[in-house]
């Protein structure tokens, strides 16, 4: 009997697997048309300078208005886009849209866009960005690229070269979700990022223990030791904000200060 139910489980498992595969193939095909059909949009979240309280930049975050599934969050389709290579198209659209929005509607502000580590492996990332900047007319110094620290893992030489080219153009590069990936300290020195965004899980943990607070303090110091501007992500409470202020974190971003919204709903004061 046990054997029988074990076998059934295996059958169910296989059915489940193939359903998932079919589902994924369908979604991959749909993602292809999503860009052409205008189903993608951007929301923007402000990032504040803690010393001046000014908005320093806005982060562009992609959304997909799927005809049947409704509003989809990036975690539901970015991994698929990375696997199928469509991330390049998606990303071209995101960067172009973010640059032209910023030029048209956000005078004096910078914009940051998220780029997948896999895009750094395709050697033409710097060229793509250069073309978009030229086409849209946004000054390169107003564009920032966010990439997770896992970008340092494969082909570090090539990645380093791409970063150098971007930095020479004036584009700033920030490490996103810092503390959750695999970068070694020696890579922080080698890659010379302009800024570090401390992952929100560290900010959420601040209230739990003295030890967690101490870790955040040390990461802020570490970032500064490498001449990086330190941003705290996921600031949701006044207590978190005052802790970060007290410990000289440079910049903050989070629901407490401003949620991601359509560009016309941004409150920049
Ligand atoms: P991320 O770059 O770390 O972006 C921050 C995420 O945290 C966003 O989620 C944002 O809505 C959320 N967030 C901001 N403040 C708070 C807060 O106070 N509390 C909580 N709980 N969450 C907060 P979102 O928009 O769902 O994006 C998730 C991830 O998807 C992003 O993480 C980024 O890695 C990726 N992503 C988003 N847009 C793009 C894109 O255009 N291209 C690529 N390659 N990845 C993108
Ligand atoms: Mg980001
Ligand atoms: Mg991220
Ligand atoms: Mg992040």
Element layout with pairings:
Blueprint: H1 2-36, E1 40-49, E2 55-66, E3 70-72, H2 78-84, H3 87-105, E4 110-114, H4 117-121, H5 125-136, E5 143-148, H6 156-169, E6 172-178, H7 185-191, E7 195-198, H8 200-204, H9 210-225, E8 229-232, H10 238-246, E9 251-252
Parallel strand pairs: 2-4, 4-5, 5-6, 6-7, 7-8, 8-9
Antiparallel strand pairs: 1-2, 1-9, 2-3
Helix pairs in contact: 3-5, 5-6
One magnesium ion is lined by residues 176-177, 197, 199, 233.
Task: Explain how this protein is built.
- With 269 residues, this protein is α/β, with parallel strands linked by helices.
- The protein has ten helices and nine strands.
- The chain has helices spanning 2-36, 78-84, 87-105, 117-121, 125-136, 156-169, 185-191, 200-204, 210-225, 238-246; strands at 40-49, 55-66, 70-72, 110-114, 143-148, 172-178, 195-198, 229-232, 251-252.
- An eight-stranded mixed beta barrel has the order 1-2-4-5-6-7-8-9.
- Helix 10 links the parallel strand 8 and strand 9 (251-252).
- Helix 3 (87-105) packs parallel to helix 5 and helix 5 runs parallel beside helix 6.
- It is globular, with a radius of gyration of 20 Å.
- The mean pLDDT is 92.
